[in-house]
Specification:
544 residues; alpha/beta; Molybdopterin biosynthesis moea protein, domain 2; Aldehyde Oxidoreductase, domain 3; Molybdenum Cofactor Biosythetic Enzyme, Chain A; 8-stranded mixed β-sheet; 6-stranded mixed β-sheet; 25% strand
């Protein structure tokens, strides 16, 4: 490729390096110049142009990006269409990303024109999350380099997403006579939330005396009730292969594969099997939601990665987790907040176009007394302990505002509502004052949320030592639900999401930050989305 300035008459078929303004509009950079372009630019006064001229061996940036990226084996991800020499690699399910680091280094050494960047290895990702990007730097690259890159890629699987396969878990805790019930209950809550991030239900939870016989019996019982994996949490940490929990596993007919883990916190972990089903002896630190070795063991095992000596010893690099989050968090996370004065502002997302409802705007559906559904929901949040309610409008914003007339709410308009829910989240975050500590993101099509649930979430969030770096949400039957309270540390990331993803990918990225609150009323997760859902409103009408 030749790069430089040329007389405009000699630029036919070349690529425009810089965009050019004309009376007819802007000609974008990278445009392949036609005679019409040249005529327009000449009339605009241009005599010379800075262009890139492709040579016989050159491939245009998009063709090269497509050729190189297509050489990758699509293992749990998809490729975006090439644009400006870039192809993105997008995860297609909840999975763990594995990388061949040496081959990736070799790929980037082929030529400076070809670059490939990825996330860190062994990261948990969600569907729709970008995991890597391939970029051709110049407008064209020699086919020789493209072929060399493809050869390296063909020698190995450079990137793969290992799907998380959910399993039904059993938690068995042991206790002494003086073990506090609150400790046992809190451990169950934390464990249930930890598993929920991996789409795994906790179907069995037992507390037994700290003896090998009792734990063995509990294992047998849990297995008979359909458990597919087992977590053992001892009243005392595992100190030896002959200790209570390893001995219990052997008595139940299982085996201990490994004791100890080069990860801190998480050293005192046990890995074993019972009828080829996973058994993990939890480290004491697993009673906390903070990232520890248990998280890595769960993610890898559920992704089908064999926990042999090589895999476990490899956790040593990056295994010093003390005082760090699941991935680097913004510096603002380190500042302290007085939780007693921690204010939670509500943001109600009411901008959607109700496409699946047909001709009706679901937010304006009337209850028995004539109250629009969106007004009922807004009143619910206003009855709670939030300090302020912001309503984000978009579709039929005048009608929605009219429905909320007289209520103590602040309106924010989202003119980009057709791009998806993320744009409404961003507008809501933008409206918050610098004094806002946390935000509760609420959906305006969930009329069964109660002030009781909202207040419980707020109270739980405010009691956290550092609520500004935490995420609080309800857990129903082991699964995450709405509404979600986000600490200020996550505001920037909430503004960076796109489409209809909401905050799901952020939740998966910061598992250790999640504070799950158990809730047993299944009704609160019901939404009004389809015409047949309208009948659900009769439950509200009955209560009026």
């Amino acid at each position: 490729m030749k790069f430089g300035e040329k007389p405009i008459a000699d630029c036919l078929g070349d690529l425009l390096v810089h965009s050019a303004k004309t009376p007819d509009g802007k000609i974008p950079k990278g445009t392949k110049l036609t005679q019409n372009h040249i005529d327009i630019l000449r009339l605009s006064g241009s005599e010379n142009l800075l262009v890139a001229s492709l040579q016989e061996d050159d491939m245009d940036e998009n063709k090269a990006a497509l050729a190189v990226s297509s050489a990758f084996v699509e293992a749990g991800f998809r490729l975006s269409s090439p644009a400006t020499g870039r192809v993105n690699f997008i995860a297609t399910q909840l999975s763990l990303v594995r990388l061949d680091i040496e081959k990736i280094k070799q790929l980037n050494e082929v030529d400076e024109a070809i670059t490939f960047a990825s996330i860190m290895p062994d990261q948990l990702v969600t569907s729709g999350q970008m995991i890597a990007t391939l970029k051709i730097i110049p407008y064209a690259v020699s086919k020789t380099f493209v072929d060399a890159a493809i050869k390296i890629i063909s020698q190995s699987i450079l990137v793969s997403c290992h799907t998380i396969i959910p399993r039904k878990f059993s938690l068995i805790q042991t206790c002494f006579a003086d073990t506090k019930p609150s400790v046992l209950s809190a451990t169950e809550d934390v464990t249930r939330t930890r598993l929920a991030q991996l789409d795994c239900p906790l179907i069995d939870s037992q507390v037994v005396p700290h003896t090998s016989a009792e734990v063995a019996n509990a294992l047998v019982k849990a297995r008979s009730q359909g458990a597919e994996a087992f977590l053992l949490c001892g009243a005392s940490a595992i100190a030896d292969r002959q200790d209570v929990l390893p001995e219990a596993l052997r008595k139940a007919g299982g085996q201990v594969d490994h004791l100890g883990l080069p990860v801190d916190p998480g050293n005192l972990s046990m890995i074993g099997k019972l009828d080829e089903m996973l058994v993990i002896g939890m480290p004491g630190c697993a009673r906390s939601p903070k990232l520890n070795g248990l998280d890595w063991l769960l993610q890898k095992s559920l992704a089908g990665i064999k926990l042999d000596k090589a895999e476990l010893s490899g956790m040593a690099v990056g295994g010093l987790l003390a005082d760090i989050a699941s991935r680097p968090l913004p510096r603002k996370l380190i500042h302290k907040v007085n939780s007693h004065n921690h204010q939670v502002t509500g943001v109600l997302l009411a901008a959607g176009s109700s496409r699946r409802m047909g001709d009706e705007n679901k937010l304006l559906l009337k209850l028995a007394d004539g109250t629009p559904m969106v007004a009922w929901i807004a009143k619910t949040y206003l009855k709670s302990d939030i300090n302020k309610l912001v309503v984000v409008t978009g579709f039929q914003q005048k009608e929605v505002r009219q429905a909320l007339l007289g209520l103590d709410v602040q309106f924010v308009d989202n003119n980009q509502y057709l791009t998806g829910q993320a744009s409404s989240v961003s507008r809501g975050i933008e409206s918050l004052s610098e004094q806002t500590d946390s935000v509760l993101i609420a959906l305006a099509d969930m009329p069964f949320i109660t002030p009781e649930l909202i207040n419980r979430l707020i109270k739980s969030h405010q009691l956290l030592p550092k609520p500004d770096i935490r995420i609080t949400l309800p857990i129903l039957n082991g699964r995450r639900a709405n509404p979600v309270i986000w600490g200020r540390a996550f505001f920037d990331e909430l503004q960076s999401i796109s489409g209809d993803q909401g905050g799901r990918q952020i939740l998966s990225a910061y598992i250790s930050a999640i504070n799950g609150v158990n809730w047993d009323n299944q009704e609160v997760i019901e939404d009004i989305d389809l015409p047949e859902d309208i009948k659900k409103l009769s439950h509200i009408q009955t209560r009026l």
